[in-house]
Amino acid sequence: METNIVLLAPLFEILNDIQPLSEKLKLLFIKHFKIEEVKKGKVLLFEKDICKSLWFLCDGLLRSYHNIGDKEITSRIMYTGHIVISAGSFFTQTPATESIEALADCVVAKLSFNDLQDIYKRFPEFNYHTRLITEQYFYKQEQRLYMLRKHDAAAKYNFFLENYAEYLKDIPQKYIASFLNVAPETLSRTRSKLGKS
Amino acid sequence: METNIVLLAPLFEILNDIQPLSEKLKLLFIKHFKIEEVKKGKVLLFEKDICKSLWFLCDGLLRSYHNIGDKEITSRIMYTGHIVISAGSFFTQTPATESIEALADCVVAKLSFNDLQDIYKRFPEFNYHTRLITEQYFYKQEQRLYMLRKHDAAAKYNFFLENYAEYLKDIPQKYIASFLNVAPETLSRTRSKLGKS
DNA sequence: AATGCTTGTTGACTTTTGTCAATAAATTTT
DNA sequence: AAAATTTATTGACAAAAGTCAACAAGCATT
Fold first, then answer.
1. How far is CA B60 from CA B63, B125, B169, in A?
2. In angstroms, what CA-CA distances link A184 with A74, A174, B181?
3. Mean pLDDT, residues A178-186
4. pLDDT value for B182
5. Which of B1, B113, B119, B125 sits at 20 to 30 Å (Cα–Cα) from B134?
């Protein structure tokens, strides 16, 4: 319980910044969120499973990925402080088209879809918070769309550097490559060219 | 006023499907939404302007686009029934990084940001509707992200056919090309290859 | 620390796409 | 309807990225 409060503090800060949370709602969060440790390499959500929870990433690094043919494509990279779901699956409670995997040892706070619905029912004003958060994530997603329309691999990699530089050393390069939609060899060459200039 | 009710009916249907709207809220919408005709080629929102309204596209076809270097890139294609905004600009009331243009003669119902905030204030339960709508649009955006990570031009064009076939003849091919992130010449060649097989 | 496995780099080559230019087709304007 | 403008197609070539393969480097594990 005590750990819960400490680990959820950053989430409460995000939510309070939108609109102060009532004490009752805070207590309900503390009650429903379950803290879990996820070891590097572990898969939080498997493709085809239903995303039945939302995770607040207290600490660590995650990626989501899906398969196209024989290739694995990294779709998102999520770091400490992120609210993590597989959107399509969570919103509609249908099978996921992507998996979510830990790129480092993580601590997550897990909230089930059902508990969240219960929270919405009891505290309708919480819709306001999630509306604003969804809007924010929507906008970030739009940025990634722009990134993918950039001309060449160098421009895409620069986007990565501008947005994920902190995590550069913690993410295997092959995952960065597929995130940017280039072959690993191409990213390797792009990096060595950029380094020399 | 009468026209308002008729033209807003599809929007009310979308909202009612989420959760029935109160009569008072409906009346407020009818009061605040302004119907406008937008001729083909007209620009609804100019880059660098603030997106001060949301539009419900009663009828017609729109595209959003931004400039990279000397090139114009189509980022979205929006058809009848869409709720249209420039997300980043509207949510934060800061200058837009994209323009929105009519690809056909359109009828739009326009709601100002300020009037919308007023609606949120008076009817907080409306946050529930917009939360679900934002979730839906988020998911659609995710699909477009997947599309851009597809291997080749043919796969991207097939995505377009699956999702926008109805509007194929109304959208100049050069806009489809930039939407799919390929050169117009490449799309032309891809189409002629696909047609022959 | 040594072994084995995975990941990253580099080279040679292929494929795809982009670019430039000319022409054809379609649209718009007068 | 004709002229003018824009858009689409096609060809020739260049550039970028993908693929395959060999090797090096980095990590885990023991």
1. 11, 30, 13
2. 12, 5, 21
3. 97
4. 97
5. B1
Contact of B143 with B179, CB cutoff 8 Å: no
Please tell me the predicted confidence (pLDDT) of residue A197. 47
The CATH code that applies to domain B2-149 is 2.60.120.10
* The one-letter amino acid at A80: T
Residues of A with a Cβ under 8 Å from any B Cβ are 66, 68-69, 73, 75, 87-88, 91-92, 120, 124-125, 127-128, 130-131, 134-139, 141-142, 144-146, 148-151, 178, 181
> Best interface-test mutation with A: which of B121, B138, B180 has the largest number of A CBs within 10 A?
B138
Q: How far is CA B171 from CA A45, A164, B73, B120, in A?
A: 39, 36, 14, 36
64-123 of chain B touching strand C, CB 7 A cut-off: none
State whether B128 and A125 contact (CB < 8 Å): no
For residue B100, which phi and psi values (nearest 5 degrees)?
-130, 130
- Among the residues of A37-112, which ranges form H helices? 87-92
Q: Tokens for B155, please give them.
A: 């796969």
Q: Tell me the shortest Cα–Cα distance from B49 to chain A, in angstroms.
A: 17
Residue spans of alpha helices (H) in B19-148:
23-32, 87-92, 113-122, 126-148
Three-class secondary structure of residue A125 per DSSP? coil
Where do the domains of chain A lie? 2-149, 150-197
A148 and B150: CB-CB below 8 Å? Answer: no
**Chain B residue with Cα closest to A71:** B151
What confidence tens digit (pLDDT) does each residue in A127-171 have? Answer: 999 999 999 999 999 999 999 999 899 999 999 999 999 999 999
Contact A138 B141 (CB under 8 A): yes
Reply yes or no on whether the pLDDT at B197 is more than 50.
no
Structure tokens at B169: 């003849």
Nearest to A148 among B66, B135, B148 (CB): B148
Which tokens belong to B131? 């939360």
Q: Which nucleotide has the least CA–C1' distance to B40? A: C28
Residue B52: phi, psi to the nearest 5?
Answer: -90, 0
